[in-house]
Amino acid sequence: MSRGILLGLIPSALVGSGDAGNRTHVMAPHLQRFEIVGLVAGLGTTFAALPDLIRMIKHRSRRGMNPTMAAIMAVFQIVWVYYGVLIDSWPIVAWNIIAVLVNSLTVAAYFRFARREKNEAAR
């Protein structure tokens, strides 16, 4: 798909006119357009694991959770943090640091509830 067609699919209020990568946004003139896209994309992917963490805490159970997936995500998000530092992209660095924390908390909660469930079953 060509760049022109892709830009045609994005509402003009988000991208404005002209060069899609370096223009500023009308509502946030201090940010470049690619920074705004990075912030929006990061918001979604960063908090994707949050429902699992909330469900575990709410139900005080590890059931239905796979800690391997959360651990793998945390490891690769650390790589994304490093990548963000290399290319000097603060949205990549910031969102992925938060995502590492969310996924690490998810893994920690899983093992905490697994230990609790094991102790309750042993009684």
Indicate the topology.
Blueprint: H1 3-9, H2 12-15, H3 33-46, H4 50-59, H5 67-86, H6 90-122
Helix pairs in contact: 3-6, 4-6, 5-6
Question: What is the 3D shape?
Answer: elongated
Query: How much strand?
Result: under 5%
Measure the end-to-end span. Answer: 61 Å
Helix-and-strand structural type: mainly alpha
**Could you spell the SSE succession in H and E letters?**
HHHHHH
How many strands, which pairing sense, and closed or not: the largest β-sheet? none
Share of residues in helices: over 70%
Low-pLDDT residue intervals, each spanning 5 or more residues: 4-8, 12-18
Brief summary of the model shown:
By secondary structure, this protein is mainly alpha-helical.
Question: What does the model show?
Answer:
The chain is mostly helical and 123 residues long. The protein has a single domain, classed as Up-down Bundle (Monooxygenase), CATH 1.20.1280. 72% of the residues lie in helices and 0% in strands. About 10% of the residues have low confidence.
Which labels suit this protein?
123 residues, mainly alpha, 72% helix, Monooxygenase, 0% strand, elongated
